[in-house]
Amino acid sequence: MDPITLGILALVALTVMLMSGIRIAFATAITGFIGLWVLRGYVPAASLASTIPQGHLSAYTLLVLPLFIMMGFFAFYAGITRDLYWAARQWVGHLPGGLAIATIFGSAGFAAASGASTASAAVMGRIALPELKKYGYDDKVSTGCVAAGGTLATMIPPSVLMVIYGFIAEESIGALLLAGILPGLLEAFSYSLMLVIRFKINPELGPPIKGITWADRFKSIKGVWGMVVLVILVMGTIYTGIATPTEAAAVGALGALLLALPGLNFKKFRDSMVETARSTAMIFAIVAGVLIFVHFLGFTGMPAAVSESILSIDAHPTVVLIAILAMYLVLGMFLDGIGMLLLTVPIILPTIKELGIDPIVFGVLVVRMVEIGLITPPVGLNVYILKGVAPGVKMGDMFKGCGWFVFVDLINVAILIAFPAIILLIPNTMIN
Fold it and tell me: How far, in Å, CA of 184 to CA of 150, rounded?
């Protein structure tokens, strides 16, 4: 059988397995191993399937993942999320849609300590939704804010998806993390602007908070210092070149632990360690399975064939880029973000480089498209996570509430495509 034909059949089989509910780690590993068996024979396939994951997963750079995850759990137990939300509430609560805007900025703050969007949505859902309900905010707006705010964790560093992309693309993880800062802030402020406009037009969506004094505002600032310390420890040391991303993550995890110590008992510490191990194992299992499948695709010659096919299209590189991002928008409706990156980037990236598009810029844009997939049906993971926190709100209403945020996201993507310097500004000035 022609290798490329075999690769196409493997992709079809993988799609069927994923749609039937098989976990992506197992589906990719099984499909990749069988494909290698057909192409190379059983013994070479078994050898490759056993050595490829071990060789890649033992890479020093991947140690950054469990450290960032650990930092997020310690930051949660340190009360940083609650303090950030309360500070945002005091400073922007008086604006139209003030509590909804506070939810966005609280999520942005927590994103700087947690690289997982689903964790951010779950935590902010428990903190913000009762307050939004208390003030009579529309359920669709409330849940939309929390779900969309959670996606900021995939853009604002530390970001698990940025680390995964850097690992696959063999790009500087430090540069990628720094590249997400300005797009993440753009996202937070554009969400807030959209909310102000919506609440101005329709005040019945929820009232502003009255009676907040300047004394209340200044008093709330003391709850922000912990987050500022973590940002300086992590991103400051990466930017100045004092530490590698892995070293910075270790320092950040230690800093978060010290901040959490006053309220940290043995049970909370154990839970943090167990959840860190569980999340890391899940991510590494997906990486291992997809690595086997991607190596099989490499033997079929599919990445080179796809690259040649795309490059043969007589179109401007920006048009091709938009088409590729549109593909990610569709894939994001059905696939997990980590799996989607691992499956597609090795195939698409050679084309991106041939088109003259900066891999750092492409990485940020792809992660942004993955973000959108987290709040779009039918597989919007943030919405499903939020359903467990707010069982009284219909799933359909949650997705409707996310619609405005998806619209803003698409505008932001267009801005970043038109002005890629926004992405590269901070990485280009970092000290190597």
Answer: 12
Q: How far apart, in whole angstroms, are the C-alpha atoms of residue 377 and residue 400?
A: 10
C-beta neighbour count of 421 within 10 angstroms: 11
* Radius of gyration of the chain measured on its C-alpha atoms: 22
Centroid of chain to Cα 201: 31
Tokens found for residue 414: 């267009």
| Count of helix runs (H) and strand runs (E) in the chain | 23, 0
Nearest C-alpha neighbor of 115 from the set 150, 68, 183, 178: 68
Give Cα 60 distance to the centre of its chain.
Answer: 21
Contacts of 231 (CB under 8 A, 6+ apart): 112
Q: How far apart are CA 148 and CA 383, in angstroms?
A: 9
Number of neighbours of residue 242 by Cβ within 10 angstroms: 12
DSSP letter for 234, please.
I
Copy the structure tokens of residue 125. 């859902």
What is the chain's length? 432
pLDDT tens, position by position, for the chain (432 residues)?
788 888 889 888 988 888 787 888 898 899 999 999 998 899 989 998 888 888 778 888 888 889 988 998 888 888 888 888 899 999 998 999 999 999 999 999 888 887 778 788 888 888 899 999 999 999 999 999 999 999 998 899 888 899 999 988 889 999 999 999 999 999 999 999 999 999 999 999 999 888 888 998 999 888 788 888 888 889 999 998 899 999 999 999 999 999 888 888 899 899 989 988 988 888 888 888 888 988 888 888 877 777 777 777 778 889 999 999 998 888 877 777 887 888 888 888 888 988 899 999 999 999 999 889 889 887 788 888 888 888 888 888 999 999 999 999 999 999 999 999 999 999 998 766
Query: Are the CB atoms for 130 and 308 separated by under 8 Å?
Result: no
Residue type, 220: S
Token readout for 295 is 């190596």
Side chain identity, residue 30: I
Please enumerate in sequence order all residues whose Cβ is within 8 A of that of 306, keeping only pairs 6 or more positions apart, or say none. 347, 348, 351
Q: CA nearest 390: which of 143, 171, 224?
A: 143
Residue type, 109: G
User: Going along 30-127, which residue ranges are E strands?
Assistant: none
Terminal-to-terminal C-alpha distance of the chain = 49
Q: Is the whole model's pTM more than 0.85, yes or no? A: yes
**Are 107 and 150 in contact, with CB atoms under 8 Å apart?**
yes
